Amino acid sequence: MIDNEVFENKVRSYYKSDIALLNAYKETGKFKYVLKTETYVISDEMEATISAAKQKLRPVMELILPILKELHNREEKDFDYYLAIELMKSRHRTVFKEIEVLGLEEIAALNFDYKLVLQKIAQLKKHAENFPIITELSKYFKVGKSYTSTYIKIKLEAIFKKMKRADLKPSIQTLKKFFKLRPERTRVGANKGTKYLIEQALHKVD
Q1: Which residue range(s) make up the domain with 49?
Q2: Is residue 161 assigned to a domain?
């Protein structure tokens, strides 16, 4: 029993490292071997880091961005580079859908900073969400023109109803989210009132 345990421990020691295993084969004198080193485009260490992040409930994107930075900073964008990107896409599809909102070059311009990337993605998503509203508003509200509060509220109510945006209130304050307004006192005969001059559009319609 003791001899068996000693033998098993010895065998296990051979598998502690690649060098130990190679030395074990070499000592027998019965094997010929060639040492070949393989370099993987995404190392086991990288994958282990991402897996550990998942277990700790850390955002996967936070761990992927430094890896993307390392890949992006390589002097040559060779086959291995593109293979690594495609492998990461296939393994982390949800995260890459977010990343592709910006694109790698834009993310590189942000130095792969996790917080900056999240902020930029949120901005673009918000713009995409508001784009139909912005387009519709631009038909009825022109820079350099003045409008009464009654006109503004009636038009906004019609636009929001048409766009099915019950979350938006037809008010001057809501219009200020899309345009820079300047109140102007007006007078028609004995009647005084206020019009709102649109000085600037706060969102571009591309």
Answers
A1: 44-112
A2: yes
